[in-house]
Amino acid sequence: MTIPANAHIAAMAPYALADLSVAPGRRLVSLAQNESFRPPSPRAIEAAQQTLSHLPLYPDPDWTALREAIGEVHGIEADMILCGAGSMELIGALAAAYLGPGDTALTTQHGYLFFRTAAMLANARVDLAPERDLMVDVDAILDAVQPKTKMVLIANPGNPTGTRIGRADLVRLRDGLPESTLMVIDEAYGEFADGLDPSCFDMANRGNTVVLRTFSKAYGLAGMRVGWGVFPRPIAQDVRKLLNPNNISVAAEAAAAAAMRDQSYMKETVAETARLRDSFAKDMHNLGLSVPPSYTNFVLLRFASAEQAAAADQELRDHGILMRGMAGYGLADCLRATIGNAEDMTLAASILGKFLSGRTP
Ligand SMILES: *Cc1c(COP(=O)(O)O)cnc(C)c1O
Asked: Which candidate among 124, 145, 313, 333 keeps its CA 20 to 30 Å from the CA of 176?
């Protein structure tokens, strides 16, 4: 008999990644995984290439060069920064460090699904606080806190909603939570909202508060797997123990450090993405879809019904365009569209335009 996995693992479904299948022979346009349509900074590519002659050696377990780059750009002390193989590794390590049987992780109704996965992997319970108009609702989160709530996780801006709450609301949430509750603010799309509010990194100084970022979105380095976060020092020390000691490859660290030091390139990506996003959102709004305001590199398209969303998904797929169905997020009437290049967004808009006006494209 095959050895059974621990019961809580055996009971879990595999993490649902995007279905990337299209009609045979079609050029595939993936708007399904919130990847950047713009390549990373040429300096990042160059820096990674330079490392290819050092491959016999293990990476720097302290991520010295990367932490220095992040620290200088964001004004954070290096010993408060941890780097992960994607911020997903950091989320998993936080759950493993602080959650266990009998504990509850609290997140929001339409919040990032990997939060739930990470809590379930730690054999903890997950509670969902309702959102209001597809926005995180601080009062609803505070109302949902129970004595066993050990961790509160929110993505801001949110995935898949794209909406955001301001820093003042995050501070209000922190003020309202028990001091001993760990608050995790996942800013995977933070670069798309920087400048609207002062940064939240300083909230780690209040204790029991962690702020996460990633190189996968605005920096265009999803394939390299690098995330980072700002942690209170005692939390950083314990979470560090759960990370693979050589989690970031030599090439990935070099690329990320160079990308971090090329802020102007990243800001161009953010500006270009926002321009294409706002224009696509306007087109979709004009077609009669409801589109919540997005502060990310994607938009959520809300159709008249789950059936219409599924039919639109199929129509797009027949033309080689993949968006992401949202049934897993309790939003079966929605598709999430990552912002691609101008040509791909024009094509997507035209297919949806014809579909919604009842003509087959
Ligand atoms: C994309 C995303 C991540 C990041 O993933 P990486 O592991 O850093 O690639 C984390 N949180 C949210 C909400 C995301 O959308």
From this structure: 124
